Amino acid sequence: MNQQTLSAFIWSVADLLRGDYKQSDYGKVILPFTVLRRLDCVLEATKPAVLAELADKTKAGVNPEPFLLRKSGQSFYNTSPLDMKKLVGDP
Fold first, then answer.
1. Burial class (CB in 10 A: 0-12, 13-18, 19+), 49
2. What's the predicted TM-score (pTM) here?
3. SS3 letters for the chain?
4. What is the pLDDT of residues 48-87, one digit of tens each?
5. Non-local CB neighbours of 36 within 8 Å, separated by 6+ positions
6. Residue 17 needs a FRET pair 20 to 30 A away by CA distance; which of 27, 31, 37, 81 works?
7. Distance separating alpha carbons of residues 43 and 37, to the nearest angstrom
8. What average pLDDT does range 26-49 have in this prediction?
9. Taking phi first (over 0 means left), then psi (-120 to 50 degrees means alpha), and beta for anything else, what does residue 6 get?
């Protein structure tokens, strides 16, 4: 998906939500959730390995941060067992 298509998609979602939020408020919702979803997608492939590494290093009493960074392959990681798919499915 190129940048123009992605931008059009994001704004189409914003247009759908516009009815549920005041115009001044929906930007406060759309942008944070767009960023959270993007981070979730970036970390999706390595999340199980990061969670397993966290459990191992916590059990061993070792600072897990450098190991988690290596497992995630990014300069950040997420140790929450939740992701957007689980949150959407949870009432």
1. middle
2. 0.69
3. CCHHHHHHHHHHHHHHHCCCCCHHHHHHHHHHHHHHHHHHHHHCCCHHHHHHHHHHHHHHCCCCHHHHHHHHCCCCCCCCCCCHHHHHHCC
4. 999 999 999 999 999 999 999 999 999 999 999 988 888 8
5. 84
6. 81
7. 10
8. 87
9. alpha
